[in-house]
Design goal:
Length: 143
């Protein structure tokens, strides 16, 4: 089992009809035909900035911020190694695309972040490409 550090991936999920993001926790090859990976699920979060209105951005120029998923129907319930991630994905390695994250975490004013829990203000990352671009790449790879 390989445990990469700060590795990210995304893939097209036909069940949600969108790209799905994850931080890779481990890669394993239990069966020779299908190497698998376990990822912590991250979802796009909406950030509004009073100085730079999101309506003025095109989908391709809008920044893409991610936060940990609090649990959804994609969750893989048989992961018992670590209880901190709320939502775990189990996916084939050959079906994912690498995801690049900015080195420094984006910091915004607490009042400008639309969030669901306090945990999200401390744990948030920004991708190097827009959600629109990554969604298109993932869908084309899926086809």
């Amino acid at each position: 089992m390989i445990c990469p550090r700060n590795s990210w991936a995304h893939f097209w999920s036909p069940s949600v009809k969108d790209t799905t993001y994850g931080k890779i926790l481990s890669k394993d090859n239990h069966t020779p035909s299908s190497p698998m990976m376990i990822m912590e699920h991250w979802v796009p979060c909406l950030i509004t900035d009073n100085h730079n209105n999101a309506r003025g951005h095109t989908p391709n120029s809008r920044p893409n911020f991610l936060q940990p998923c609090e649990g959804c129907n994609l969750h893989y319930p048989y992961y018992i190694a670590d209880l901190r991630p709320k939502c775990i994905l189990f996916f084939a390695i050959d079906r994912n695309l690498n995801l690049k994250i900015h080195n420094n975490q984006h910091r915004v004013d607490r009042n400008s972040l639309l969030r669901t829990t306090e945990r999200h203000t401390n744990k948030r990352v920004q991708t190097t490409q827009s959600h629109h671009s990554l969604r298109t790449l993932a869908y084309n790879d899926y086809l």
